[in-house]
Each structure stands twice: as C-alpha cells, then as structure tokens.
Amino acid sequence: MSMRPRRSSPCAFLLAVAATAGCNAVGNHGDDGDTSVGDATGSTGAHGESGPGSGADGSDGDATGSSGDGDADASSSGGGDDGDGCGAIVAFADGLAPSSERHVATGGTDAEGCGAVASPCATLQAALAGITPGTAVRIHAGSYAGGTFAAGLAGSQDAPIWIGGAPGEARPVIEGGDVAIHLAGARYVVLHDLEIRNTLQDGLNLDDGGATADPDAARWIELRGLFIHDIGTGGNNDCLKLSGVNDYLVRDGEFAACGDSGSAIDQVGCHRGLVVDNLFRDLPGPGNAVQTKGGSEDVEIRGNRFDHAGERAVNMGGSTGFEYFRPPLDATAANAEARDIRVVSNRFVGSISPIAVVGCVGCLVAHNTIVDPEHWVLRILQESVSGNGYEFAPASDTTVVDNLVVFARAQVGAVVNVGPQTAPETFTFSHNLWFAHDDPGASDPGLPVTEDAGIVGVDPMLREDLGIDASSPAAGAGVVVEGVDADANGRCWAAPPSIGAFEVP
C-alpha cells in the first residue's frame, strides 16, 4: 500500500542543471498578525522577524570551525549519517570551480582594483564591485562590519558567483549594521561558510528588489554552512529573510536567537526551495524557525532538527500584507498563503506547537518525530481571509502521515487545535503513532477526522537520539508516501517504512 498526497511530486528543483532525489519543502510565522513581510522597494526596512544560530550543546556554536572549499559540493550532512543514497542533493554549482578569486582580509585596503592575494580588499562591499560570473570572493578569517548591499549580482549557469570563507580557515564573522548582507535580484549565487551576528534588523536578506511579478528576478541561490545568531533588537527580526526568491537551497546551517517574534528563515512568496539538514535552536518568544507564506509554493523542509525553536517551529502559511504576495494576488481565483509545503523527516523537541498549517493548501506533514510539545502538536489556522476583492482558500487538503508523536498529557490538551474558517474535514491522518508518556491511557489524540491505521498509547521506545530499533512498534508500521524517499539520516525508507523521522538501522 502507498499513499499519494494531493501534490508531492519530486521537486523539479532549484538547481538549474539537476533535481534533488526525493525532494520536497518549507514553513511560516506566528499569531501576531504581522503583515509587514518585506520592502517592495528592495530596501531592508524595519519590517522585522528574527532568526537562528548556535551549537547544539548550548554554546555559541563553532565560531572557529574551518570554512568550506568555496566551491559547491554534492555532499549533505544528512542528519549526521552518510545514509545509503536516498535524498541526495544535487545543486546548480556542483562540479563547477571558480575561474578567478577576489580576497577580503582584515588587513586589506579598499583601493581601486583590490582583491588579489597580495592586496586584498578590506570589505565585502568593495570586493563585489564590478564582479563577473565565475568569481569566488574569499573572505579570510576575522571580524568584518555588516551593511553590505548589492543589487543585480548575477553569475550564470556555468559560472556562478561564490561568496564565503577562505578554504582551510576559521569561518569569518560579519556583524553589526541593520543587515549584515542584503542582496537584491541575485541570480546564480552561492553564499557559504559565514558567521553572521549582532545585527539590528535581519541577519541575511535576499529579495527580488520589489519585482514581485517577475519569477526570474531572484533565482538559483544556494546558502550553505551559515551560522546566523543573536539577530535583531528583540522584535520581528529574521536571521534569514527570503522574499520572492525562487529555486533555492538552504543546507547545513545553524540558526539561534533570532529576535523575539521573527523567524530563523522567513520565506515570503518563494518557490521551489529546499531547507535541509539545518539546526534550529533556542528561538525565543512568539517567533518560529521556518515560515513559508505570501504565496510560497513547492518548498520542502527536510531532515532538520528543531530544538525549542519558537512558538511554531514550522509555520506552513501565515499572514501577509496583500501587496507583498509573489506572484501578486489574483482577483479571479482563490489565493492561498502557501501551497505544496512539505515538512518531512524532521525532529522536533519542544515548541508551543511544533507545526502549524496556516492557510496552507495541499500540504504534507510526513515522517517527523515530535517530542514534548508544550501545548499542541499541530494547529490548523486561517489568518488571511477573503476580503478587499480577493478570495482566500482555507487551510485544507493536507496529509499528516507516518509521524511519531511523544507528548505529556499534562501539558498537551488538544493535540490538534482547529481554528475558525479552516477545512479540517479535508485533512487526511494516517499511520501516525501517538503516545502520552505520562499517561499512556490518555494518548488518544482526538483528531478532527478519523485516522487510518493510527497507533495509540503504545511506547515507541525512542532512543536518546530519537531513533528507533527493530523492537519498536513504529518499526515497519508506516505507509509509503510517494516522493518521500529519505529519513533524517539520508537512509532509504523500507517498504513498508517505519513511523517517525528515522528508519531502523
């Protein structure tokens, strides 16, 4: 038996030359009714939302870890395991190498023509001046002031532009300013191996420069190995803000302490994205880790770890000002905050509600392991409603399957919270495991629709790493979901698969 969600095609993904094997994707924001999601002029603005970034052990992360090689590679962290070949990621820059380099160093000078090894620039802003496709900007170890802005930065399919840490050196730190780096209308750009911290608004901002109706304005972006943390001044500030970005990859990053009500990754009107193998932790207040709204579509959030990652760790949809939708709203058809957002093979610990479906249509929540949510497991909400000449489809047609949920009944009242103006009757629940560890007899989730083949009140016997062994009742108890090929470690699912984020080793 297999299950086919409303739409779960393998991503015809971001990456110019290739697709990801078994891919899908992404998330949105809080209850604050925030509708300021970007600056249509392309400026950074004080729209606010915040983000992530530090070590899983509660430290400030690896500020001294060596940076990558500066060239895109095909390897994936795969949740800490080499896996067995499923869920492989193939990015547009894989197999390509720079044809030239520009260097940035703390002892450099922003003189005309700077950038050679012997005469490096002092700032990233200077190094980007007149840059051509195929160039790698090597930022050497040290601390640099934020505030870089570039419009129209464009590589090409055969010759991207790389911006990142110098090979073999500690990751450079970019800090301060309103935004550390803001790229408007970037295409074929890889940003890698950077630490960004202590900015006033957002950490890293990529947008379409206000060209909300142009799907090609900001496209083919890879963000790899970024550590973004301690962002904003306590408001709606984001670690990573993406507005109108299409065909993009966010991988192997770490996000923490992103404002009080912002996002680690806020995606507004973004399409064909993959957010994979990232750590989101210690996100305070009413914010979230990953949000996808404003007309976002075809985004997969896969193989990530969410540790106390905001009020709603993943917000599938949200609330967006009408003028910020990409593409612009259609007065002749039903609009949606988000469509085809896929949250698969992730691990969640804590959060008020790990997952919220907020005006998301045709979405998927599959093979996640959820432990100790603080109030709800899942919320079904509607924040953007019909009016002012526009119709909005309700949160609907979403499949919730093969998830392993361990919770405390003393903390969780309603397992699924259903808000007004939604369509819970169109949801499908199947093959999930529900276990209240403090009161197994009270494990019944009380779902809004009848579940097919759910397991209730049976201890899944989670290991400390949230995986399972062959003796677990979750082992082999799931159902095949088309397009979901890899567990959190990049291993192929068995047939039938196990329930939760991990297949049995």
Give a structural overview.
The protein is an all-beta fold. It has one domain (2-79, 95-481): Pectate Lyase C-like, CATH 2.160.20. It is 1% helix and 33% strand. The longest helix is centred in the first third of the chain and has 4 residues, at 124-127.
In short:
The protein is mainly beta.
Outline the fold blueprint.
Elements lengths: L1 E2 L96 E5 L19 H4 L7 E5 L3 E3 L2 E4 L9 E5 L7 E3 L5 E4 L2 E6 L2 E3 L6 E4 L10 E7 L2 E5 L8 E4 L1 E7 L2 E5 L4 E6 L2 E6 L2 E5 L4 E6 L2 E7 L2 E5 L2 E6 L16 E2 L2 E7 L2 E3 L3 E6 L1 E2 L2 E3 L2 E3 L6 E4 L9 E2 L6 E3 L2 E4 L8 E3 L9 E3 L2 E4 L18 E2 L23 E2 L24
What general outline do the C-alpha atoms trace? globular
What class do helices, strands and sheet pairing give?
A: mainly beta
Q: Helicity level, as a percent range?
A: under 10%
CATH architecture: 3 Solenoid
Rg from alpha-carbon coordinates: 21 Å
Mean pLDDT: 87
Estimate the strand proportion. Answer: 25-35%
CATH topology: Pectate Lyase C-like
What is the CATH C level class, in words?
Mainly Beta
